[in-house]
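ok here's Exonuclease, seq below lol
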Amino acid sequence: MAYIMVDVEADGPIPGDYSMISFGAVLVTPALDQTFYGQIRPISEQYIPDALAVSGFSREETLRFEDPKIVMQNFAEWIKRAAGNDMPIFISDNNGFDWMFICWYFHHFMGKNPFGHSSQNLGSLYKGLVQDVFKNFKHLRKTKHTHNPVDDAKGNAEALLTMKQELGLKIRL
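and the structure came out like this:
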């Protein structure tokens, strides 16, 4: 299996009515040297200024971003190369949010999702590993959480690697 850590920045709470602005992905390996970054032109006239502000981009900047179909095709090709013969596994810090956008964009613009129908949540995995639903994994990140989605995906991937290497998580990476 090829675990791919993903992080999404968006200008609102749901896809379709609002837009995914950018996203980052990293193949979870000790080197963390295979990454993808996409910036996507908005698909909706609606946006929430405070949500957009988190991304660090202005509305005017996002309107010059790339066509969503092209970005999603490029991402699908990257996933295929990164995963090789392994099944790609989507994992993120907040998969309820990140998965919703990635899955919707893949189905809307490509007709299928290379990750299939499943995703995994890093936070839930950590809570189960330490057997405490009140614990948070974020102290395991090394890369600072900047809201650059590649940085954030890398920090989360580092946390997953620490869970494997230091906390005994049984996972094939």
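fwiw The CA atoms of residues 80 and 88 lie 8 Å apart. kinda neat tbh
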